[in-house]
Design goal:
alpha+beta, 197 residues, 29% strand, single chain, globular
């Protein structure tokens, strides 16, 4: 199932910045996708816990860990901000190059992106957003499947993502893009609703 489109028009960050706050959108190649309604409590718990652990582990380091909503502008080249046609809001992200940070958020590819999947966004995140992150050079992409207790990890090998790693949400998982950072899962998974039969 795809996410609803705003319309059939081509949009840029210049358009996006002037839309009201009643509904949030992400832009992919000029197409505006309506983001799903407010995430569930469990989605927020997973997102918040990953952010907390990563932010604590990078305290005082050059890499900055951030949490949605935050605009990540992904230019094709050196075009002005208002001409950028791809703007995403990852659930959690880390940026190690301070030159990519400004008052509007991030301009350029983060080093690490985490998308916590929900049934309404899983295919969009797996297909469309994964391709965008790969194309723009996000070093490490995590797709967290709370319902299935599964983590899919993509890492850049040259200009493309290699074969993904599939990891159970158990024990700890190393964030290779952030040296010394590991995410612990066990206490978090205990707070999630039981898996179905």
């Amino acid at each position: 199932m795809g996410l609803p489109l705003r319309d059939e028009e081509f949009h840029t960050y210049g358009d996006y910045r002037h839309w009201g706050d009643e509904r949030r959108y992400e832009l992919i190649d000029g197409v505006a996708y309506a983001m799903s309604p407010s995430p569930t409590r469990h989605h927020q718990e997973v997102t918040g816990e990953i952010y907390r652990q990563a932010a604590n582990a990078t305290e005082g380091a050059e890499c900055r860990v951030m949490i949605a909503p935050l605009d990540v502008r992904l230019p094709r080249g050196d075009e002005a901000d208002d001409r950028i046609d791809t703007v995403l809001q990852p659930d959690v992200l880390a940026v190690c190059d301070p030159d990519k940070l400004d008052d509007r958020g991030v301009r350029g590819a983060p080093d690490w992106v985490v998308e916590v999947l929900s049934p309404s966004t899983a295919s969009h995140d797996h297909i469309h957003k994964r391709r965008v992150y790969e194309r723009h050079g996000v070093t490490e992409l995590w797709l967290v499947h709370p319902t299935d207790r599964l983590l899919t990890i993509y890492r850049l090998e040259g200009d493309e993502y290699g074969k993904p790693d599939f990891v159970e949400l158990a024990g700890e998982t190393e964030v290779r893009a952030l040296p010394g950072v590991r995410i612990a899962w066990d206490a978090l998974v205990e707070r999630l609703p039981p898996q179905g039969p």
